[in-house]
What does this fold into?
Amino acid sequence: NAGVTQTPKFRILKIGQSMTLQCTQDMNHNYMYWYRQDPGMGLKLIYYSVGAGITDKGEVPNGYNVSRSTTEDFPLRLELAAPSQTSVYFCASSPRDRGHHEQYFGPGTRLTVT
Amino acid sequence: GESVGLHLPTLSVQEGDNSIINCAYSNSASDYFIWYKQESGKGPQFIIDIRSNMDKRQGQRVTVLLNKTVKHLSLQIAATQPGDSAVYFCALNSGFSGGYNKLIFGAGTRLAVHP
It folds into this structure.
């Protein structure tokens, strides 16, 4: 299994541009999540999904959108990028029988907005 | 409100020594407490968890202790190795909200292992 994969690894955006961060997992996990990690800080939940077709907001959803059309994929969309969205973004997944606390993380996408 | 804090931002240990990483929390409703390890340039990796009805749980070279009276969680690593160098996060679940028992992560402690 590849686990959780994320693309791209790095990206520089100009203010006002848009982009989609891709996330795919091959473990057939029901639950998926998007986090952002600012320097020296813990993880903040942006959006999560408990299954295909079901998504909900986390702690910091403003400026982002998600979709979950399949079990495997959970893309994160940034519209009108702002410098405050400069961060490292992690996608994660977890199996239903482990609740939400054993999460498997991807390698992250480092995004800079200038 | 919920908060998760770490006692020290950086911990330096000698290779072969035992390491203890501490975490304080405020949410009494949490039923799981979890430790994650994040190596440089990688995503966090689940290490071990403990349920709120336990006070100790052991894994391979790691032990997690939970003291609910003082709301304190610790991770002990035996015979620390260079490969243990990483940032360690404690996390806890915050209670159900719309079907999701979300995780709250602390800011992390950096463990530096010296030869």
About this structure: The interface with chain B takes residues 4, 40-45, 48, 50, 56, 58-59, 90, 92, 99-108 of chain A (CB under 8 Å). The two ends of chain A are 36 Å apart (CA to CA). DSSP finds no helices and eleven strands in chain A. The first strand of chain A starts at residue 4 and ends at 7.
